[in-house]
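Aim 2 progress update. The chain analyzed this quarter is reproduced below.
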Amino acid sequence: MRKIMWQLVVVSLAVVGCGRGVEADSAEDADESAVVSSAESALTAELADEVAQPASTTPEQLAMNAATRVGARFKPQGCATQTQMGATVTYVLNDCTGPYGLVKVTGTLTAVYSRAAGGGVNVVITGTGVKANNATLDINSTVVGTQTNGVKKAVVTVNGSGTGPRGGALTRTGSYTITFDTVAECLTIDGTWQTGTARLGASTVVAGYKRCKGQCPAAGGTITHTSAKNAVVTVTYDGSAVAQWAVAGGRSGTVNLQCGAN
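Predicted structure tokens:
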């Protein structure tokens, strides 16, 4: 099975002693949030990639172009079907593999396309129980995509929920910006979202996290996760399959990442 591409961070901290501790709980909640958000960002980038269309393109034409493009990029052939009605496209995916490291995506997504201010593209994406990689997503996102000097970006406002790889249910609200390269299949994510789980609430801040298909996170990115109990874990990346984590008070360690060739 191919390794999951767009997992922002896979944190597996071992706490020495009798109890797990807040840090381990915070790390697991960060992992649940990261898996859900990374899978969502890959889907978002793919469905919203109409930013290169001329400003004169109508919402109906945006929807038609998106339906054609998305259907061609998911594999195997025939795993994705698209139904367009005006500016709305309903995508039905059945065990598809897609761009940006999406693996085994199954579910129904609805995307409503319109023009944003300044010629950008606005897309409202919704879907319930969408399975992407090892996460299950209830998506309710508004995406504003732009292209400036050939650089594509999408600002995503999220108000959704999901279930991470450990089976933990969570809700997420906030926003993040994706800078994406459709040729190299790279995403860079910056943003902040609030997470609520059955165990803890938290804030996750992502800065300069860049991931390209088949590679580990690029050097320089960070994720700072603050639990409801104000336990702060900061993860930094150096381009390898091992990241560094640190907490206030001097404790630090390493994080083994699931990354590399797919």
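The two ends are 8 Å apart (CA to CA). The CA atoms of residues 68 and 167 lie 34 Å apart. These observations will guide the mutagenesis experiments scheduled for the next reporting period.
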